[in-house]
Amino acid sequence: MRIAIVTDAWRPQINGVVRTIETIARLLQADGHEVEVIGPDRFRTLPCPTYPEIRLSLFPNGRLAHMLKLFAPDAIHLVTEGPLGWAARNFCLSRGIPFTTAYHTRFPEYVHARIRFPISWSYALVRRFHAPSAGVLVVAKSMRQELSQRGFKNLVPWSRGVDITAFQPRPRTPQDDPRPLWLYAGRVAIEKNIKAFLDLDLPGSKWVVGGGPQLKELKRQYPKVRFFGSVDTEELARRYAQSDCFVFPSRTDTFGLVMVEALASGVPVAAYPVPGPLDVITNPKVGALNEDLRAACLAAITCKSEDCRAHAETFTWASCAQQFLEALQSIPRTTWQPLKRRALPDAAAS
What pTM was computed for the model? Predict the structure, then answer.
């Protein structure tokens, strides 16, 4: 099967969306499918306002249409509600081509946190984007329930996994910072609510791993906190394994893959009782959820490493890839009959 995945979130970004796409693409290719990920790296781009690390594709419609015609996929999946997502949506609708989408990011809440744009207006736009989708893949049950209440249709469960080889418990080594070590890993951006973690009165030391538009500001405001910036997978795995508790202060995530990675590393999780954490921390032996985040931290740190690891092992990428494959909608072969299939170039042509 030839599968086209169109996404505005792609390398060099490092986040849960990109890791999910990379992993399922690799697994599907290993099973004999031909997967083409079309991201901003193939187009002229400009930096996203307030978040320059994200690149937005400029006028992608014509080139994207050409690429999809050349590849002639058996199924098309749209990952994001950005310029490429909208361009692919328009391409499919104008030709009667079925497609699936995914709800990875609470876009309305993110925009509201940055520029105070009314959430109801943003949801109207996002709902319009997903309305023609044959299946809207959503990872968290609590998130599916919320979207259903907001008028979204065709919601499809989609699990997540974790690389239990890359992320696993390791022997604790002496650190320069006093324990306990409280860790946050992820984008350093206002919508992640990191200040709620950094303002907590906790014993020991706080670590923050990740890059983003708020990094410089937070480093200046919290000189006693250790900020490691963006790191590779091996360094991230080491930081997880050396920490005593993973703190997830976000209230706007649809899931939070980093929580599962922390659990796989034998590290308990403290978070608010909101969508995402409610779907990951389903066992009180692996973490704590509380509107009082400090109380959640102090409760979570008593959890056992082996319980956290065992819980993480229930999240498998194989199930994630299979659910994705089953949700795809086949495109009639007559759609591409006049065209000869070709492999796409690795990067944008001039």
Answer: 0.84
